[in-house]
Amino acid sequence: MCFSYLVEVITERADFMKLIFAIVNNDDSHSVQDSITECGLQVTKLASTGGFLKAGNTTFMLAVDDSRVEQIIEVIKKHSRKRTQLMPTTQAYGGGTYGNFPVEISIGGATIIVTDIDRFEKV
């Protein structure tokens, strides 16, 4: 009886919950994780790889009450800094390839996705 009540309460609360995916640079992942847990939240940490630079990222997943979404986004913003990096590129002329030309690119920061949760159970 108690178990079904617990599932019922959690399922009802899902209407007010959001799922946040935050993709951050590996250099910032420890700071972001520590800050989220200091807010009293549990977070799932996944290793991920970016498509453009094929560099390591960390993807965080966390379920939060709707009222805390902005707070968590601000925490992630505060601890995910942008930086520049030189990336070598190769120029092709005619039939051959010639030289590397470094290009400055912006990396870091965070990509944050927030979605509704239809159902949330913790078993």
How would you describe what is shown here?
The chain is of the alpha+beta class and about 120 residues long. It has a single domain (about 15-115), classed as Alpha-Beta Plaits. The chain is built from 3 helices and 6 strands; from the N terminus they run αβαββαβββ. β4 (about 80-95) and β5 (about 95-110) form a beta hairpin. α2 runs antiparallel to α3. It is elongated and about 60 Å long. The two termini are about 15 Å apart.
Produce a short descriptive summary.
The chain is of the alpha+beta class. It is 27% helix and 46% strand.
Q: How big a fraction of the residues is strand?
A: over 45%
Fraction of residues in helix: 25-40%
CATH third-level topology: Alpha-Beta Plaits
Mean pLDDT: 80
Rg over C-alpha atoms, rounded to the nearest angstrom? 20 Å
Give the end-to-end Cα distance, rounded to a whole number of Å. Answer: 15 Å
Tertiary shape: elongated
- What is the number of domains? 1
Helix and strand succession? HEHEEHEEE
CATH class category name: Alpha Beta
Q: Which characteristics define this entry?
A:
alpha+beta, Alpha-Beta Plaits, four-stranded antiparallel sheet, 123 residues, two-stranded antiparallel ribbon, 6 strands
What's the structural blueprint in terms of helices and strands?
Elements: H1 2-13, E1 17-25, H2 29-38, E2 44-49, E3 56-65, H3 69-79, E4 82-93, E5 96-108, E6 110-116
